[in-house]
Q: What sequence folds into this?
């Protein structure tokens, strides 16, 4: 192998690939061939680097120059200027609003407060290369564990580290392991839960795609601790790249003898395989996941018995999240005390969050537990896009809850989020600006849960649908007094009575938005008005006569011809016929068409009359 | 016989005849079928091979959203309808796709090229709104971009 003078790391996480990273990589190969530089420059395809919003991104070593939003057309310039003449392309570097330039990855504010444990290699090594993983101390932890520790020692270390499940509930990892360890059985199993379904969460995907060997190593350490000889990766079929990468990693590990019989000359034998889902959110629940691996419908079953006693094919089984496994090798390399030194009293270590929504730096970040929401959203996440105001943040996806401005100084850990009606969940952080209607968002999450409910238990199957119906009525102007209380009553009942985590947590978004944005619900119900002008039935379009130039564009584009007027008289929308398509607003050259909160008085009068008529019929 | 149906048994034989291989077998049958679906004949073949009742297979087929029991287009478009994509305007993308393809959600375009489906989170939320066409992810969608993407696939066929 010849020495190369430059390492070009191109992020090939799904985000950057969707923005065209593969084409850029190919273009680099072409240009380097043309210029006879292929021997000098090493092109490495890495996993997710984090800042998806800047994608496609790349880092060039030895200097660590960080380029964002690179296009195919920029490739030639990078090669000519940077690689040949040694002048990095400033234009592609990150700049902030104050025209400050951040030339290297280390300087980029996005990375400043991050501490990478699970994500340490993500975006730094080639995920398809076991050699690169080994070069970053990969499989060293497994070797140490297998040759110097007993299974019980391993569990002690995990206990000391304070590691808790990263998939949602935050159950202490060592307790699960201890339970399976203590069970005597002829066969035990370890399952990696890669059925990441929470909208807004993509850390498991990025980890599986970006550093598959780490997850595999974590799984093997777990298998040794509990006495399992077989493991399963259950990965969503929506993640074809993750499936491919983990299969490849397993094959490589087997070839090198890091997996199979008598690993590291010990008595430990292990084999792993990949099973895929087929599109069912509920399969993230451990009992449902087990049924799915067994080849059935992914219906959850009542607990107890817990999978630790009777899991896959009735044998003791641990089900751990991808990120949980991702932390394990480092805990053994750097020590439980080191891990436990980060975080808060009850939540140790770091957590990976996926920042999405109306936030500037969407992407994947890893921060110490206990960081405040403000730091997470404004320092790491770079604040809101387009100068809008922060309104709410949804933590924990459809199982979690919304928090508001007043919670920005809350420390992010399992307990403090739960206290306030949200939850850590898998770490999805959906940031919303003041243009979002919270009733509508709650309805949206409810719709998701209704779709994804497996239908096995009635509180979830029927109850969630009832809640959705009420929310629909509220957002289309048919809400009535008492609806909020009914939603709360239903929500609490469903939380208590549902069989699995999906139903138990599905009412959270509604309950938390009622708790913090009750006035929005009330405005929808009493005033028939959506202050954010999102709910189409509770807003109307209006033409500002002073601005209107009478060009007639709106009238011509109106699909129901409800706009009339002339150049002299200007144009008017006949509200009763308007279907709120928004065409008029889109085409107006002088921005004279406005969205106004609330039903138009004419529409409201008609609506009230009709509502009275139906209620008489009901009597 | 359409290409694909005769392959069902061949696909089955790649896997051990255990019930737990059902989901993987169904995936492969569907992926290799030109119309991306699982026919009643295929169900019977799999049932016989795995020694499970056909009703169990239908139970599984209808439980998971990725399986189809009706023929679909050559390219499956799956637009994410989860909240992060919704916040970033996936509704407009859906409207645009419906117009370009002349279909409603769940339908196949007349030329048999595209089936338009909605799906839960695709896990590329950093680049919302997002869609997948077959195994490829397309992010940061705008109405113009969608038009280009579809046009490109149409030209390539």
A:
């Amino acid at each position: 192998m010849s020495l190369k003078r430059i390492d070009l790391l191109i992020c090939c996480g799904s985000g950057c690939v969707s923005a065209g990273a593969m084409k850029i990589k190919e273009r680099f190969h072409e240009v380097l061939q043309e210029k006879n530089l292929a021997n000098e420059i090493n092109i490495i395809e890495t996993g997710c680097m984090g800042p998806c919003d800047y994608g496609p991104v790349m880092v060039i070593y030895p200097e660590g120059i960080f380029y964002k939003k690179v296009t195919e057309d920029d490739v030639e310039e990078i090669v000519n200027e940077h690689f040949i003449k040694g002048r990095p392309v400033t234009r592609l570097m990150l700049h902030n609003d104050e025209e400050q330039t951040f030339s290297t990855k280390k300087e980029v504010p996005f990375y400043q407060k991050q501490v990478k444990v699970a994500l340490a290699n993500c975006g730094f090594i080639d995920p398809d290369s076991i050699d690169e993983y080994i070069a970053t101390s990969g499989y060293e932890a497994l070797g140490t564990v297998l040759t110097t520790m007993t299974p019980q020692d391993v569990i002690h270390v995990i206990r000391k580290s304070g590691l808790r499940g990263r998939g949602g509930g935050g159950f202490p990892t060592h307790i699960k392991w201890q339970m399976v360890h203590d069970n005597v059985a002829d066969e035990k199993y370890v399952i990696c839960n890669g059925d990441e379904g929470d909208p807004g969460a993509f850390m498991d995907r990025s980890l599986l795609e970006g550093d598959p060997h780490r997850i595999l190593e974590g799984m093997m350490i777990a298998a040794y601790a509990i006495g399992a000889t077989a493991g399963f990766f259950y990965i969503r079929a929506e993640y074809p790249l993750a499936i491919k990468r983990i299969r490849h990693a397993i094959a490589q590990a087997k070839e090198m003898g890091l997996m199979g019989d008598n690993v590291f000359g010990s008595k430990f034998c292990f084999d792993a395989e990949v099973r895929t889902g087929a599109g069912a959110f509920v399969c993230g629940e451990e009992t449902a996941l087990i049924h799915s691996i067994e080849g059935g419908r992914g219906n959850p079953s009542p607990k107890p018995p817990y999978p630790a006693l009777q899991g896959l094919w009735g044998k003791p089984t641990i089900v751990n999240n991808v990120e949980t496994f991702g932390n394990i090798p480092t805990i053994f390399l750097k020590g439980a005390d080191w891990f436990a030194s980060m975080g808060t009293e009850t939540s140790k270590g770091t957590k990976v969050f996926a920042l999405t929504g109306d936030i500037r730096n969407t992407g994947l970040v890893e921060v110490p537990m206990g960081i405040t929401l403000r730091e997470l959203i404004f320092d790491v996440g770079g604040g809101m896009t387009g100068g809008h105001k922060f309104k709410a943040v949804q933590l924990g996806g459809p199982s979690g809850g919304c928090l508001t401005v007043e919670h920005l100084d809350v420390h992010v850990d399992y307990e403090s989020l739960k206290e306030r009606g949200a939850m850590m969940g898998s770490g999805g952080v959906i940031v919303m600006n003041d243009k979002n209607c919270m009733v509508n968002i709650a309805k949206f999450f409810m719709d998701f849960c209704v779709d994804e409910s497996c239908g096995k238990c009635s509180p979830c199957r029927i109850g969630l649908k009832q809640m959705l119906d009420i929310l629909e009525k509220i957002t289309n102007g048919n809400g009535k007094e008492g609806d909020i209380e009914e939603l709360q009553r239903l929500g609490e009942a469903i939380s208590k009575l549902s069989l699995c985590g999906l139903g138990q947590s599905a009412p959270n978004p509604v309950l938390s938005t009622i708790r913090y944005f009750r006035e929005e619900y009330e405005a929808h119900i009493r005033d028939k008005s959506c202050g954010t002008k999102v709910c189409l039935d509770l807003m109307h379009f209006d033409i500002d006569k002073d601005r209107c130039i009478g060009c007639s564009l709106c009238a011509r584009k109106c699909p129901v011809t409800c706009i009339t007027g002339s150049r002299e008289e200007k144009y008017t929308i006949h509200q009763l016929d308007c279907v709120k398509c928004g065409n008029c607003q889109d085409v107006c050259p002088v921005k004279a068409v406005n969205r106004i909160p609330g039903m138009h008085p004419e529409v409201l009068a008609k609506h009230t009359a009709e509502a009275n008529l139906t209620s008489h019929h009901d009597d | 016989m359409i290409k694909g149906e005769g392959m069902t048994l061949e696909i089955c034989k790649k896997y051990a005849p255990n019930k737990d291989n059902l989901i993987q077998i169904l995936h492969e049958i569907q992926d290799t079928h030109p119309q991306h679906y699982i026919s009643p004949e295929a169900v019977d073949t799999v049932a016989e091979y795995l020694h499970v009742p056909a009703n169990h297979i239908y139970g599984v087929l209808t439980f998971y959203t990725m399986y189809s029991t009706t023929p679909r287009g050559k390219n499956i478009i799956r637009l994410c309808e989860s909240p992060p994509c919704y916040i970033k305007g996936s509704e407009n993308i859906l409207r645009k796709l419906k117009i370009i393809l002349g279909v409603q959600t769940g339908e196949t375009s007349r030329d048999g090229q595209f089936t338009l489906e909605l799906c839960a989170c695709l896990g590329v939320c950093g680049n919302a709104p997002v869609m997948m066409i077959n195994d490829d992810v397309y992010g940061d969608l705008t109405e113009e971009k969608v038009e280009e993407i579809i046009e490109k696939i149409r030209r390539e066929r």
Chain A has a mean pLDDT of 94. The radius of gyration of chain A is 27 Å. The domain at 438-526 of chain A is CATH 1.20.1440.230 (de novo design (two linked rop proteins)). Chain A is about 40% helix and 15% strand.
